[in-house]
Design brief:
Pfam families: AhpC-TSA (PF00578). Belongs to the peroxiredoxin family. BCP/PrxQ subfamily. Keywords: Antioxidant, Disulfide bond, Oxidoreductase, Peroxidase, Redox-active center. GO terms for molecular function: thioredoxin peroxidase activity. Residues 2-148 form the Thioredoxin domain. The longest helix is centred in the N-terminal third of the chain and has 12 residues, at 42-53. Helix content is 30%, strand content 23%. Strand 6 and strand 7 form a beta hairpin. The chain has five helices and seven strands. It has helices at residues 42-53, 55-60, 73-83, 96-100, 138-147; strands at residues 12-14, 20-22, 30-35, 63-69, 88-91, 113-117, 123-128. It is globular, with a radius of gyration of 14 Å. The strands form two sheets. The chain has a five-stranded mixed beta sheet. The protein has a two-stranded antiparallel ribbon with strand order 1-2. By secondary structure, the chain is α/β, with parallel strands linked by helices. The protein has a single domain (28-147), classed as 3-Layer(aba) Sandwich (Glutaredoxin).
């Protein structure tokens, strides 16, 4: 994973509607980047729905949430609509952002990884789940965010 206390790599990726979203769009805000292996997989669906159900916890902490995987915009759109996800899903089809954040697993898929970027673009927290079949439950994720 990317080292904590380093400058977060800049990126621009399309969201599910095709709008280009850049990390710099959120200057002055905290951003939680959630790398995940893929749309419509059981664990990723459970994970992102857990975060959806508790999105007010991110809002209370003034944190913008961005989900990133290598899935297409069309896949993200369907996945987000079906699950009523209130945060942007970004399409990293070339895996360039996952590479920049050192969030690629050994099979070339995105790890289940979390990066919290502060208001100045510095990485406050960066880690990945050891097993891809397990995700960070909301209470554990918030504990790590609050401690950062």
């Amino acid at each position: 994973m990317i080292a904590e206390q380093t400058k977060a790599p800049a990126f621009t990726l399309p969201d599910s509607a095709g709008k280009q979203i850049s990390l710099s769009d959120f200057a002055g805000k905290k951003v939680l980047i959630i790398f995940y292996p893929g749309d419509d997989t059981p664990v990723c669906t459970a994970q992102l729905c857990d975060y959806r159900n508790n999105v007010l916890e991110f809002t209370k902490r003034d944190i913008v949430v961005l989900g990133i995987s290598s899935d297409s915009q069309a896949s993200h759109k369907s996945f987000a609509e079906r699950n009523k996800l209130p945060f942007s899903l970004l399409s990293d089809t070339e895996k360039s952002v996952a590479k920049a954040y050192d969030a690629l697993g050994f099979l070339g898929m995105s790890q289940r990884a979390y990066v919290l970027v502060d208001e100045n673009g510095v990485v406050l927290l960066a880690y990945s789940d050891f097993l891809p079949i397990i995700y960070q439950p909301m209470k554990d994720l918030l504990a790590k965010i609050d401690a950062a």
